[in-house]
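Field reference: sequence -> structure
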Amino acid sequence: MVGSLSEKLYEGSFPMRVEHVNDSYGHLHHDAYFVYVDVVTDRFLSLLGFSHEILIEKMGVCLVKHSGRDKYHKELRQFDKFDVAFEVCSRGETFLDFVYKFLKSEDEKGVVAFKYDSTWTFVDAKIRKPIPIPNFFLDALRNAKG
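Structure field:
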């Protein structure tokens, strides 16, 4: 069971490379960043042994995004390599905060290009109502190696 305070449950990094074509300004278009957010989310779930389909079909729950806030700091360009520093913290018994920091890994190594803070919650797949973070998911998070 998660307490009422925030608890860091996972911290890791995912190497990436910009495969999208630049926009007319010569950098990655703002909406393309969210493609990489989805890729990291899927890789993270896979690392835990889950996917959205497994959560729904086998566990009876949906992991859904409740809210998010983005901030752009530096541009990324086509073929740039970058790392997504990713962390998950619990907030109370119902919410998980996913933080994605896109860090440049070449010319300005470690400089934050983009940051996305998002809040996620679990929903019962049948009745579509929020539920506490399932223990099976908390256990998988605490046992994960980032």
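Note: DSSP finds three helices and six strands in the chain.
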